[in-house]
Amino acid sequence: xxxxxxxxxxxxxxxxxxxxxxxxxxxxxxxxxxxxxxxxxxxxxxxxxxxxxxxxxxxxxxxxxxxxxxxxxxxxxxxxxxxxxxxxxxxxxxxxxxxxxxxxxxxxxxxxxxxxxxxxxxxxxxxxxxxxxxxxxxxxxxxxxxxxxxxxxxxxxxxxxxxxxxxxxxxxxxxxxxxxxxxxxxxxxxxxxxxxxxxxxxxxxxxxxxxxxxxxxxxxxxxxxxxxxxxxxxxxxxxxxxxxxxxxxxxxxxxxxxxxxxxxxxxxxxxxxxxxxxxxxxxxxxxxxxxxxxxxxxxxxxxxxxxxxxxxxxxxxxxxxxxxxxxxxxxxxxxxxxxxxxxxxxxxxxxxxxxxxxxxxxxxxxxxxxxxxxxxxxxxxxxxxxxxxxxxxxxxxxxxxxxxxxxxxxxxxxxxxxxxxxxxxxxxxxxxxxxxxxxxxxxxxxxxxxxxxxxxxxxxxxxxxxxxxxxxxxxxxxxxxxxxxxxxxxxxxxxxxxxxxxxxxxxxxxxxxxxxxxxxxxxxxxxxxxxxxxxxxxxxxxxxxxxxxxxxxxxxxxxxxxxxxxxxxxxxxxxxxxxxxxxxxxx
Amino acid sequence: xxxxxxxxxxxxxxxxxxxxxxxxxxxxxxxxxxxxxxxxxxxxxxxxxxxxxxxxxxxxxxxxxxxxxxxxxxxxxxxxxxxxxxxxxxxxxxxxxxxxxxxxxxxxxxxxxxxxxxxxxxxxxxxxxxxxxxxxxxxxxxxxxxxxxxxxxxxxxxxxxxxxxxxxxxxxxxxxxxxxxxxxxxxxxxxxxxxxxxxxxxxxxxxxxxxxxxxxxxxxxxxxxxxxxxxxxxxxxxxxxxxxxxxxxxxxxxxxxxxxxxxxxxxxxxxxxxxxxxxxxxxxxxxxxxxxxxxxxxxxxxxxxxxxxxxxxxxxxxxxxxxxxxxxxxxxxxxxxxxxxxxxxxxxxxxxxxxxxxxxxxxxxxxxxxxxxxxxxxxxxxxxxxxxxxxxxxxxxxxxxxxxxxxxxxxxxxxxxxxxxxxxxxxxxxxxxxxxxxxxxxxxxxxxxxxxxxxxxxxxxxxxxxxxxxxxxxxxxxxxxxxxxxxxxxxxxxxxxxxxxxxxxxxxxxxxxxxxxxxxxxxxxxxxxxxxxxxxxxxxxxxxxxxxxxxxxxxxxxxxxxxxxxxxxxxxxxxxxxxxxxxxxxx
Amino acid sequence: xxxxxxxxxxxxxxxxxxxxxxxxxxxxxxxxxxxxxxxxxxxxxxxxxxxxxxxxxxxxxxxxxxxxxxxxxxxxxxxxxxxxxxxxxxxxxxxxxxxxxxxxxxxxxxxxxxxxxxxxxxxxxxxxxxxxxxxxxxxxxxxxxxxxxxxxxxxxxxxxxxxxxxxxxxxxxxxxxxxxxxxxxxxxxxxxxxxxxxxxxxxxxxxxxxxxxxxxxxxxxxxxxxxxxxxxxxxxxxxxxxxxxxxxxxxxxxxxxxxxxxxxxxxxxxxxxxxxxxxxxxxxxxxx
Amino acid sequence: xxxxxxxxxxxxxxxxxxxxxxxxxxxxxxxxxxxxxxxxxxxxxxxxxxxxxxxxxxxxxxxxxxxxxxxxxxxxxxxxxxxxxxxxxxxxxxxxxxxxxxxxxxxxxxxxxxxxxxxxxxxxxxxxxxxxxxxxxxxxxxxxxxxxxxxxxxxxxxxxxxxxxxxxxxxxxxxxxxxxxxxxxxxxxxxxxxxxxxxxxxxxxxxxxxxxxxxxxxxxxxxxxxxxxxxxxxxxxxxxxxxxxxxxxxxxxxxxxxxxxxxxxxxxxxxxxxxxxxxxxxxxxxxx
Lengths: 587, 587, 288, 288
Ligand SMILES: Cc1ncc(C[n+]2csc(CCOP(=O)(O)OP(=O)(O)O)c2C)c(N)n1
Ligand SMILES: Cc1ncc(C[n+]2csc(CCOP(=O)(O)OP(=O)(O)O)c2C)c(N)n1
Ligand code: SF4
Ligand code: SF4
Ligand SMILES: [Mg+2]
Ligand SMILES: [Mg+2]
What we know:
The complex is a heterotetramer, with 2 copies of chain A (587 residues) and 2 copies of chain C (288 residues). With 587 residues, chain A is α/β, with parallel strands linked by helices. Chain C is an alpha/beta fold and 288 residues long.
């Protein structure tokens, strides 16, 4: 049992808290995670959750490192069993310390030095709380085991429960204290993790989920209207924004269905408010016609698709990357669109901003692809530079042009070189605009003309060139020249990055190529000197190798070797490593 | 003015009837078309229609040949102007004979021998009909000009109007007769068209629209339920089937929206009735989630997408082939599907049958792509061989297996080598089935298991191999060995075929490759000996070259030269020829 | 800006594509008159429509227009109005658009109660697609999709409106211009969601419910004796369909609008609000 | 086949994933009892559901099941029933499923009047997605999407049912088992579309409309004095919501079913019909 196995020489600790839905594993995660981040460490938290509210088996896993951690580890250093089921599930396979509630295990308590009994529910009740505070007891115990001082934890408990009154804060602090006390002499069971002394302020970093990052990205982009219908894993974006309605003067509208959601967002953006909608693949299916409407009427629109395993209802609370070809091709007819797929929370934040920028500048729909792994996990991120966030409204008609215009002389779909026509907002004195879903004249009226049709198709598709020029190519680590590259996109970044760094540390000549801006693809997505020389292995969280297919369609490049995963879980570096070794054997 | 210009040595005559929406141009088309077919000739009729009910400018064009004609000609030998607008539009450019209603042209009657005045409305009124029967007068006149005897026309008028009473039949016959009489001495204005003498029975052929062909194909495949929401150009399928409800004991249900339509069809197929839905791209957008449901629950489903120019509402009454990549990729997640795209009415009839066969055998959705050109045009077809039509139910659980099964022991999603699980219908004594849109166990209950998920994804996707083995490769004319090939799919077949035959007749070494079964593509869709040697030029009725993109994605083959048309109209051979000549110049 | 005669102010150069004799002309004229009499200017008004013959109407008016998808009139109107409550938003479409494809939005827009007006041209048929049954097609009528006659009876949208507590639910007739003008004016003036169903003969595809058919049956509710605020009475009145068909305001109730409840009333429109970076920085603090 | 005790006949081996104390258990038990008392066998019954906690119910019963998409319960049920009218079709889902996502189908299924039963578990909340407002969420309630309280009042689905002339519209309560069993039996026996809204406490996400909250308010309509065939009275009763909430059959009317009107009643099910090649050949003749 070593906390340093995966990445030699550095602290890398994984804690899994398992229990039934409803036992508050995720609260332990956020609490401890934040405490560690405040200590200057890097944290990654992910959740394995069933689609149910109570019962079953869920877990939250916290990974702590003194270097960036961007994905779960397959190894577990400390396992906390909030229920007996968790203990039964893992007691034979667990390698690390195991904390269990001996109040819940009658008779057959597991033997062995690494099994640490802790009657969490009983302690919670004795501490003046309820059995539901067992998770706070666990938090205290985990702090003790990992060398986290109690003060920052206590402080956080104060922040978290301040809204619920002093009594609740006090009880929780007492729970944490008692858990801490019970475990502080077990500290030596675990190797030191390089935690800095408590009085030393670490570098300031942020910890947030992918959904929070998207919501913050939207706020930073001056979003004014968010309409959606609840759907996991996208609901968290809506719920977070809803809590900011008053403060930011935005409106979050829960629509009657996803069709209404997308059409409301289109209406709002048409009126001049930056608008966004978010859903998962099934809800997106209902938005497909609306997306084509945004394309035809040339209304900006930002759509977040938080992917989950599909088709149909699939695995509502699990993860997959199987909507890439769907979002690049959905909707009838041909119109420009952009597809972005952040690899972590920082990228999620930033790419939402880019999505608004592109949507508004090119007056067309832009997709941001998240997934359950990206959206529900918590990621440690360097603080944002505020200045670079907000971008001015794009492609509106200029004041001068308006002044020079005859009354009611505005033509919405003026043919231009870029394909972008200066946009007017309804309510402008002396002018009106006609936005039309039929094929239309430059004025926006229904036409039947072959010539106009041709000109309008070309005008709209010309925007693709403009967008292409603004797209970023993939991140290539460590640059050109490696012998082999993993090729990936979106939320597999963390696992791929760690795997490649691990391989390189062992002297293997690997690199990776990660795409976060997928459509329209830059001219030469995989530079010639790499594509021609290096071995490429695609890593995708789907069954058909969708990035491979997209690359082949766009460039002809065929990545024949693929490591695909489609069991509803994200890759861990350990699994990816194993799969790569398997590949080698097979060839 | 020669009726033989395009195809030397054969009869090839084109008649265009222009007028306002509501003037009955299409009735003339069907009437004359059928009369010519009965005379042993080949007929193709297409319509150029605005999205309005009265007014505007529409036309119907009838092409008659003594060899197969499968698309419109750009040349017009006889133009009938039912309104003044049509005359104004064409009088300067028309090359052939022009019949116009001199009752509607005050003063500025056009000069020249080829302008034939015919006061159609007045004649109709005098003949005891109303002005609306002007079109029947025109039919009589056209018969006279083309050498079509009056008897078959009269007979047809009897058949067509029999439901409206003797009086109507008589008036129409009188109209036709008077039109005929007025023009019969103008016969010599037009070169002979090889019309056989009226007493000689020609070979029996059928004339029907693509929509009729699809509806008949569905009847022949034992369709029992058709649910849809009206949408041009698919409405004709529903309306035709509705007229056959009683006779065939089928149910046609007009749903409240397309979402209901697709889900109803899924419910009906689940219950054991062959079911189908049809729409255009915008309606299909609303069916996308339902399609994924069919994929996940493994319910057979046949979906017809009659493409029209898009995005959004687009051109409701015009044509385009821009939904290929959309139907191959729509819906979240990964599941098997098939995509068929008939090139003419005969293929439409046959491929609907194949769609039912595949859908039922592989228990998954199958798309048939039509378009306005295919669906609304009338095509001459050799009579069907009845025996080959109907196929027995596929992949149901066998009686023996049922007998051997424990009570309530059936498992809907048994894992099999083919990916196909024997299907049970609800209502079977002693057994029940669970069909589930969540990821599920073999029994059809919700699961959260990674292993089961993986097995189920693989099981479903295994069906692709089975379907691929049953797909036909493209039609290659005249076989391998030509220097250049046009590559096309779906309804461009007619124009491409005629162009290539024309080129070959002139000694040019052209061939074509036509795809009607598009997904999953056969192993080597374009045989190596062609792909490696010949020049390939794609011809598509869209702006992005969607077949090219699909081929490149599936095979890596890049067809760089593309002739694309996206103005809402179908190709004519003359235009295609011109575009090919343009290509040559450009290179 | 050049001064225009009021009656031309709302004239659009787009040529009209309706059939001669279509009831839609009456609706267009009534709406033009109502807008003039309401003393609005073209830029004040946003018309949102779906797809169908009815939904073409905004092209024939000078005003802001969003002509969207079949059935999706109300959600677009909702988003547009929330983003800029200063606009006078009028949603407009046919019976198929509103009661079939858009049925869910109809119910939920009435619940939401934004301050806008919804005009439904009810010709009891699908006009643009050439004559299929709509939810309001009368029983037994032969249409393209019901060659043996429609087996269903007509839906009662006004009853749904009363059930949904729509604050203003009324019926007009395209052939009763003066009444319709007044009805539209009242609807636009009503603070909250106002629904006006307008009977509209379709001369091409509805040979049953013709101008004469309607003319013979419609009667204007007597404002002195009929109390539209009595919900039960309104429900009964909303069901009346057959030999006699009531015109006028069927149901009225005072409900707070969405704008009011969500603090949008009187506040700067969403579209004009800008990011407060201080606040954003403060929110970031939560994540440290 | 082995004989089974009636109460086990409808038992499913699938483990239940609801929260302890959830009102859905009461509904499941009531439905099981009703099916037994109706003397049905598992293979006679087809349950069609959407997505949500409520929609999981059919997994916990032995009978045919189609567990489809969120909100699309009724169209699948419609297609399945038309294809095989012999099946006893019961559609089942939550308030979000039926009144939000599926709102349009709800209205149109009532119009269509197929002979099937629709059970809506109304917990006034989105359960499976962890507590967002549904169309029936009470005004002011704080939910995940309404952190400042719901500004809209609850929709009245039973009033929509009366407006749509739903032949059988009733309300039950998961905590009133005997009454619910009888209601379900009546609904299944009713020839035509029967709609039963069932009040169902959600112990995890609805802390307002709890078991006690309902218990205190519900009362069973007195069959002797209340006449559910009086449509106006039914409309008023359907609106009653607050201190007193009526249970029982709110509205009844006799309407011919879809099956009857479309000639499906008594005829061989579509699924068993086969192609008559002679007739097809005759149709081909039309095209020569
Ligand atoms: C999603 C979708 N489905 C179907 C259509 C085809 N469509 C266009 S208008 C229309 C119905 C028109 O009827 P109505 O709304 O009553 O308007 P009207 O033409 O009678 O004024 C239909 C079905 C469409 N454009 N989009
Ligand atoms: C198209 C689509 N949108 C959203 C969802 C997510 N979703 C699943 S269940 C549900 C709502 C559940 O509420 P309700 O129908 O009232 O059922 P309950 O869980 O309360 O029984 C939602 C929004 C989905 N599965 N599909
Ligand atoms: S089809 Fe009917 S509704 Fe449409 S324009 Fe003509 S008369 Fe009016
Ligand atoms: S969340 Fe509510 S509705 Fe869902 S199972 Fe739990 S108590 Fe029942
Ligand atoms: Mg209509
Ligand atoms: Mg609910």
